[in-house]
Automatic annotation (TrEMBL):
Transmembrane residue ranges: 50-69, 126-146, 158-181, 193-210
Pfam families cross-referenced by the UniProt entry: DsbD_2
Keywords: Membrane, Transmembrane, Transmembrane helix
Name the record gives this protein: Urease accessory protein UreH-like transmembrane domain-containing protein
Domain Urease accessory protein UreH-like transmembrane: from-to ranges: 5-203
Family matches, as PANTHER family: HEAVY METAL TRANSPORTER, HEAVY METAL TRANSPORTER-RELATED
Keyword Aminoacyl-tRNA synthetase belongs to the record: no
Protein's organism: Runella defluvii
Length: 232
């Protein structure tokens, strides 16, 4: 599962550059020394990964409850089906996964806080920028969060989302250093390929739920609870 998380993060990173790149470029680090700039960018991305991990931890409790009910494999299949449905829903599916109306006030508050933090120069503000950035609506983060439920527990859910955040780190760090590093055409091509990649992740989750063994990436081997017979 963690292979999937990192790959999803890596593949979605160019989309992240398009959506969150302006925030990364506006980080108050450009007047600092090279090493201070690097440290600030790392703190910002660590903040994003921390938020992702916390969200994965919370959703992991849902997965754990379903796992205890004996529904782990059904959960994996259901997660894959939901992801396939999201991909099939529209050719512009990422745009369709916008902000639910009941969350819009919260998003406006987050954006206001981001604007305030961008004018502060402390390293703690850079970390807070990342944590709030991680709460902004994003279709690909939604897909990763749905997948994290299928891990079946809070710890694995947190690790899954932290690994997803790690996958976005190279591109998001690079764009903070070099403006216009990724061309519009490159980001557009990556965006066109993302539905296909998400579909692959969805299929792997479905196969995982169908107990297709022999693939280490599926991650369900040897998870059965041992039962003792005759006192042994």
């Amino acid at each position: 599962m963690f292979y999937l998380a990192f790959s999803l993060g890596l593949m979605s990173s160019l989309h992240c550059v398009g959506m969150c790149g302006p925030i990364a470029l506006a980080l108050p680090v450009h007047q600092r020394s090279k090493w201070e700039k690097l440290g600030g960018i790392v703190l910002y991305n660590l903040g994003r990964a921390t938020t992702y991990a916390l969200l994965g931890f919370l959703l992991g409790f849902v997965g754990n409850a379903l796992n205890l009910a004996g529904l782990q494999r059904s959960l994996s299949i259901g997660t894959g089906v939901i992801m396939l449905a999201a991909v099939a829903y529209s050719s512009h599916w990422l745009d369709q996964l916008g902000t639910p109306s009941f969350l819009q006030k919260g998003v406006q508050w987050i954006k206001k806080q981001l604007g305030t933090l961008l004018h502060q120069r402390s390293f703690s503000s850079l970390f807070m920028l990342g944590t709030l950035n991680g709460l902004l609506p994003c279709g690909l983060v939604y897909m990763a969060l749905i997948s994290s439920v299928a891990t079946g527990g809070p710890t694995d859910g947190a690790l899954f989302m932290a690994t997803f955040g790690l996958g976005t780190l190279p591109a998001m760090s690079a764009v903070a250093f070099v403006k216009n590093l990724f061309s519009t055409s490159l980001r557009s091509r990556a965006r066109q390929w993302m539905p296909a990649f998400v579909a692959v992740v969805a299929i792997v989750l479905i196969l995982r739920g169908l107990e297709v063994t022999g693939w280490p990436i599926l991650g369900l081997e040897n998870r059965e609870i041992p039962i003792c017979h005759g006192g042994r």
